[in-house]
Amino acid sequence: MNNLILIGFMGTGKSTVGEALARRLNWPLLDLDQLIREREQRSIPDIFATDGEAYFRSVETKLLQESLQPGRRVITTGGGVVLRPENVAAMLAGGVVIALKATPEEIIRRVSGDAQRPLLRGNVEQRVHQLLAERAGMYDFAPLQIETTGRPVAEIVDEIIARLVDQADFWRK
Ligand code: S3P
Questions:
Q1: Is the predicted pLDDT of residue 104 greater than 90, yes or no?
Q2: Boundaries of every domain in the chain
Q3: Which of 6, 10, 148 to mutate to test the pocket of ligand 1 (most atoms within 8 A of CB)?
């Protein structure tokens, strides 16, 4: 069996679903944004403000690669991890990639009032629509696409586990 990697736009539930999935499987959880904060000893808004997005992306790529050692973990990623083709290749080679989805309205509802996302500064609604358009199709490479809008976490985890049964990569030694 192999790493399970959760991707998806901001506010699609990666952290919440990742925690529940890791608990259900009794696998360790690795949260990439958390690793970045620990490694850098500062918040994500601080990193963006001081060193810019390009620097953040290079730390993200480095820690993603470190996280993708062969093994059984649930890895949750930041929404922008799909921006670099090398990250996409590393994730496909390093485990089973699961994309979480939500409607734009649900995403806006979930991210509103959270100051920890530098890319959503300003008019959140406008920023979400703009970034969704810029990233259209970028999460589609994942073999598992899971809708989260209006669904309880336990039901989402049930669907992921049921669908993993069909994934040859998941059973790869
Ligand atoms: C980002 C998403 C964030 C975080 C950073 C950049 C993005 O993670 O990595 O603010 O580019 O979409 P979440 O998806 O967990 O909010």
A1: yes
A2: 3-172
A3: 10
Q: Going by CA atoms, what residue is nearest to atom 9 of ligand 1?
A: 78
Q: How far is CA 167 from CA 15, 64, 105, 149, in A?
A: 22, 22, 31, 24
Pocket flag, ligand 1, residue 119 (CB < 6 Å)? yes
d(CA 146, CA 166): 14
pLDDT tens-place string over residues 38-93: 999 999 999 999 999 999 999 999 999 999 999 999 999 999 999 999 999 999 99
Fill in the amino acid letter for 90. Answer: A
Which amino acid would we find at residue 144? L
Which residue minimizes the CA distance to atom 10 of ligand 1?
117
Kindly indicate the confidence band of residue 173, based on its pLDDT and cuts at 50, 70 and 90: low
d(CA 62, CA 166): 31
CATH number for the region 3-172 comes to 3.40.50.300
